[in-house]
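Record passed on underneath.
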Amino acid sequence: MSSRMVRSAGLISVATMASRVLGVARETVLAAVFGASGGPEMDAFNVAFRVPNLLRDLFAEGAMTAAFVPTFTRTLTTRGRDEAWRLGNLVINALLVVTGLLAVLGIFFAEPITHAIASGKEFASVPGKLALTTQLTRIMFPFLTTIAVAVAMMGMLNSLNRFFIPALSPAMFNVATIACAFGLAPLMPHVGLSPIVAIAIGTLLGGLGQIALQWPVLHREGFRYRPVIDFSDPDLREMLRLMAPGTLGLAAVQVNVFVNTYFASTQPQGAISWLNVAFRLMYLPIGLFGVSIATAALPEISRFAASFDHAAVRGTVSRGLRLMLMLNVPATIGLIALAQPIVAFLLQRGRFDDHDTIATAAALMCYAPGLIGYSAVKIVSPTFYSLRDSRTPVAISAASVAINVVLNSALVRALGFRGLALGTAIAAIFNAGALLWLLGQRLEGIDGRRIARAFLKILSASLIMGAVAWLADYALAGILPSRSVIRFHVDVLLAVRLVAAIGLAIAALVGSARLLAIEEFDDAFGRVLRRVMPRREEARR
């Protein structure tokens, strides 16, 4: 992997870490204030947010990133910054028109939309729950427009090799939500509104915050906003041509989660929140490792694809996938081994009780195997769009959604809400596997044997790590008291238990990776050491 790509992925990981940590803090605050199964508010919010969030993922983030970055990068490379800025303005204004119209329609049709996606008897039987969900949906629909603009800005900055601030910008969503939970929620009852309305308002403020954080950086790069729009522009039409099928090509994860919401509304109260929290926890390593690697790799892949250098595209994809496996396979095994203490430490306080912890941990364990699939798709699917192939991801995405629906309808009967998480994970693995196979056909190989060999070695080391983590946690749970008169002591004991188990697990992973001579491990950690050691030498001098 090129030094620039590794360095960029590192910067993105640091920024994403800050955002994801704030995301966990956000979930902790919401769980403590509103609980999971203790009331209808969080279920209502999660369902209401699902609709604008789904549209955001489909139109603003997924398809925008896949279609806009290659088009903007190609324009920047071949025709210069002025033409690239012109394209950026055209895209932003087109997004304002399209997403603004979608937001207005969403507000107007909020009630039938809400009834369509949360019609389960368990959900609808709670008095006022559907009405609250409709109200929250109306408040949050404009979030789609704010995020569409923020993602366009992110794409421009990434194409200019500016990664840190764009990766940090999602943190504004979490900051705004936490601030509203503490500052605005207590005031809502005084004006006749549910406290959860404050969280919906925080969602909108978070979208605006993402724009505000990136704007100064983009301005320094030379971008100036112009209120121009021209749907006949060939570059804009090329992007829209890729974006339309790209919406479906990158839709599998979001549509599958949307399907989960529908099925979960038939389960006992709290199931939607358990699945939502578990998915967010599982998405933490995806954001840190999968998205960061994909974001850093995409501009390189786009440049190589623009010059028809398929060998370089193949090499970049292969290196990105192997680095992703080195980071995400251990993360997957670790989440499975330590699911319950992780959930308990992060969330079990206030109205989030033992029952919520056990249920959320069970969902997290079932979601975790899909982590590798989700991360691989983040790298592979945009590669097809860089190669101007939008049909293949569409076909595989459609097949993945169909498989998810079939699996979920069967597994929910056998395993309840846990079956929904497991079905989604299996569908994600299918999506990634099929795309990888077809990309190999398109590029005449992607070092498949090397990737498979690396995967088997990394999996072996990760299983040893997972066994050590589980045994260490089991032993410490028997030694350390599980209850305390003071809540703070419980948190400290859980922290000690987790830190010790994770520390021993990492030591086992390092030893196993050395023993198995895992090249990707040596490469990743070797680069870190080479960046640190020279500084130590300079300090000694």
In short: The chain has two domains: 3-446, 447-541. Confidence is low (pLDDT under 50) at residues 484-488, 527-541. The radius of gyration is 23 Å. DSSP finds 22 helices and no strands in the chain.
